[in-house]
Write a structure and sequence with these properties.
The relative contact order is 0.13. The longest helix is centred in the middle third of the chain and has 32 residues, at 293-324. 54% of the residues lie in helices and 9% in strands. The strands form 4 sheets. A 3-stranded mixed β-sheet has the order 1-2-4. The termini are far apart. The chain is globular. With 479 residues, it is mainly alpha-helical. The structure holds protoporphyrin IX containing FE. Protoporphyrin IX containing FE (HEM) binds next to helix 7, helix 14 and helix 17.
Length: 479
Amino acid sequence: MGALEELAGPLAQQFTQLHLAAQVGILAASFLVLSVSLHVANQILFKNPNEPPVVFSWFPLVGSTITYGMDPPTFFRVNRAKYGDIFTFILLGKKTTVYVGCAGNDFILNGKAKDVCAEDIYTVLTTPVFGKDVVYDCPNSKLMEQKKFMKIALTTQAFQSYVPIIADEVSSYFKKSADFKGKSGIVNMPPKMAQITIFTASHSLQGKEIRHKFDETLADLYHDLDMGFNPVNFMLHWAPLPWNNRRDHAQRTIAKIYMDTIKERRAAGKSDAQDMMWHLMGSTYKNGTPVPDHEIAHMMIALLMAGQHSSSSTSSWIMLWLAARPDIMEDLYREQVENLGADLPPLHHVLLSAGGVTATDPTFFPDPDTWEPHRWDKDSPLAPRMVVKSEEEEEKIDYGYGLVSKGAASPYLPFGAGRHRCIGEQFANVQLQTITAMVVRDFKFRNVDGSNKVIGTDYASLFSRPLEPANIHWEKRDA
Ligand code: HEM
């Protein structure tokens, strides 16, 4: 008998005598040790010189998910310093290659549809939320047509009709809200901004029938739908988990509300409203097919969700920064008084670009972490150090939804670039500026502790936003 067998025999005997739970524990621990060893050995011994460097990680599948997820900007900065502009890391079990820097922004955002295929990645998350046949549940060429329909509807004339709608929503929100009763108080701002954003967007883009339903059922249903955007759903989108069941129920119910509204509108005849639903009801694909009702309903959901997260967190940041910089809030107030008068009217490799890295790079933006809206003034010492081309100099390209800038090598791309560029930029500007103007007219904000600091970022959600509670002190101007 060999020495090994001599040792193995008694060990095996001892193992079989153990309690079942202990046996399972030992097997699981051995499996973990084995897979960690193989994963580590694989990274050290089998480096492929033709592929980008891989960020070292201890655990297979988990890879860098936790360090990335806790603070993506720091993760990118630290690993860029270690590995250069292009590196691969494991995110939720997938090999993900990021190309940071201006060249990376251009390479990814202007990449060929067959090489950088957003629908392959996002569809598992977005299709159960938006519904079938729209956005990432259809060929990219169809999405380009859908974006064209939406972009055409967002005209200057439509925006002019939206401003009073948004302004009225903001004033009536503050009048009705129990948290803003009295002369002054303290409030956690982000949930308030989330409500203001959804009320203003639904009223202007989807019409007053839909807006009224937000006071009844729609707000809760949208909340359930939103839970579908949980990052773990990149892996568990199919699982019959409570939040997925609620997501599916909410999707069916909301889509039916939109489809019923479309039918009611058809029955009542054309109105002069400038909202997106009317526009889509009259739109036809290039092949002659009118946009079917279920697609209009699903586009309505997609549009509201696309705008909601970005505008709601941007407006929260604006309010929190105004509280941190009351001097800027006063500048904005004076600007309105001077201009409007004191009597104011109302699988495989996933590819990523990381626009946030260049947008916070001191090479382009001096003192990038300081919120200083005046950095956009021409002679500001903090003015961006980048070449800004005029409208005429800018080369344009049409991906199927109208002309957009061809170059994506800019360090500053808050609305993306290329075929997936935002079509909501102008709407977001109208919405955010109107909300800010209304708030500045009626309130003075400051931090509860009087400091100039702003709370950190919550990266755990899919869309980064302020950590909560993000309390500010408010005071009414007319108090
Ligand atoms: C501050 C507000 C907003 C910001 C910062 C923002 C940012 C962005 C960015 C960076 C993209 C590109 C995404 C990618 O490349 O995968 C995008 C796409 C898009 N956004 Fe916005 N957005 C905002 C508001 C809105 C609003 C209000 C709407 C709707 C009214 C909207 C609708 C869309 C749509 C439809 C796309 C296209 C997605 C695609 O083609 O894959 N966005 N947005």
